[in-house]
Design goal:
By secondary structure, the chain is an alpha/beta fold. It is 34% helix and 25% strand.
Length: 93
């Protein structure tokens, strides 16, 4: 009997602008690397909508419970957050 395939949980936070493209490309690279290496694990990706659009709706870049939300993930893939005319220093984390 073979061992069950391990699935690593990845939280993807593309954010804004180039972050959306970068996160999508990074996930494709990870998937290709897994396939090319013959590894016996998978990734399960959950996308979070945190960024400027979320800020416009809620007044915050992240929900208050974001640490609890992300705690169970094996990895966090973060793109970029920000928009012209918005303060960025210290506004996200």
């Amino acid at each position: 009997m073979s061992a069950p395939i391990r699935a690593y949980r990845i939280a993807a936070i593309p954010g804004d602008g180039i972050g959306i493209e970068v996160v999508a490309a990074a996930l494709e690279v990870v998937k290709a690397a897994i396939k090319a290496s013959g590894s016996s694990f998978e990734i399960a990706v959950t996308h979070f909508p945190w960024g400027n659009a979320y800020f416009k709706e809620s007044g915050s870049y992240l929900p208050e419970d974001f640490p609890k939300t992300l705690k169970g993930y094996d990895a966090i893939l973060f793109g970029a957050v920000g928009a012209a005319g918005k303060p960025t220093k210290g506004s996200f984390l």
